Amino acid sequence: MKLIIFITLFFSSISANAQWTYYSESDDKKVTFYIDHSSIKRNGGISKMWTMQDYADVQKQGQRSIKYLLEFDCKNDSSRGAAFLAFSKQMGSGDVLYQDYKNDPWRPYTPDSVSASLAKIACVR
Fold first, then answer.
1. What percent helix, strand, coil does the chain show, rounded to 5?
2. Cα dist. 29→95, 110, 114 in Å?
3. Is 13 helix (H, G, I), strand (E, B) or coil?
4. 83 to each of 20, 78, 110, how far by Cα in Å?
5. Three-class DSSP category at 50
6. Per-residue pLDDT of the chain (125 residues; tens, 9 = 90+)
7. Using CA atoms, how far apart are residues 117 and 108, in angstroms rounded to an integer?
8. Taking Cα atoms as reference points, which of 79, 69, 60 lies closest to residue 11?
């Protein structure tokens, strides 16, 4: 239990100091995507970066925004989710409704995908 509280506070404090920069918007204008350039960290060929999806309307599980910690294998053109936190209000504010800190499997991305364009940002630093 103490570990879960620590992890929650740790990730909340990191993302609370985020400097969110507009990245793109869905075609229907219902989701806006942001990147926190200040969160980009690189260790060898692996780069990590926080991103956020901000919803115009409340989603099925009650969230208005979700922050994702993404990892990029810059040498093997693959990515995975490392953590996410869903919030009750826009721009990562309000209550944390649910969260997950498990690493997803590595997945290769295609050159024209969103993951590829995010990797270009994360892997250049």
1. 25, 50, 30
2. 24, 24, 17
3. helix
4. 17, 16, 22
5. strand
6. 444 444 444 444 444 578 999 999 999 999 999 999 999 999 999 999 999 999 999 999 999 999 999 999 999 999 999 999 999 999 999 999 999 999 999 999 998 898 999 999 999 86
7. 13
8. 69
